[in-house]
Amino acid sequence: VDLIKIDSEKLKINEIKNLLKNAQGILIPGGFGKRGTEGKIQCINYARKNNIPFFGICFGMQLALIEFARNVLKIKNANSTEISKKCTSIVGLIEEWEKDGVIHKGTLKKLGGTMRLGSYKSKLKKNSLINKIYKTDLIHERHRHRYEVNIKFKDSFEKKGLIFSGLSPDNLLPETIEILDHPWFIGVQFHPEFKSRPLNPHPLFASFIKAAKKIKL
Length: 217
Known about the structure:
Strand order of the largest sheet: 1-2-10-9-8-5-6
Shape: globular
Order of helices and strands: HEHEHEEHEHEEHEEEH
Number of helices: 7
Structural class: alpha/beta
Distance between the termini: 15 Å
Helix content: 25-40%
Number of strands: 10
């Protein structure tokens, strides 16, 4: 694997095509805050439109949904409340959208007890790409995040070909996403790198690299 590291904070839109023209796979890792997010979203857009294998981890999955919401669902102000308080909240703290989807005053003050940390179960959609990768319908993966994808947008995304292929057991929290008409476009809310080892790689990383090798430049 030959890694090309790009600083998305310094990335200019007119440079993306040239910088990524030799990329056979694009990975957006986890993170916090708004620094460099617009550059990451533009890279996701490039991967989606050009059928380049894409892997979004935690924040990377959330940004993939924001990109799709803006450019496919045409929700121009789609964002995460972590990044902007004046937006259509595709991503937010659970208490911000679990009742009516309206941002409630004072919710951001409860940060200490809102992080989802540790191992959680996820149910995988049968015959989805990620289901075929794991070869099981139920997985246990480690999480470390505070913001969650708003489940109320599920139908809107799926009507346009982006499916929520993994959900929490209570069907409230999106855990994995994928685009049906793309060779390999997967986002996960958890951190597969926590369980990956040099001699025992996580199946998602192995599948991602295998898909990237098929891309002819």
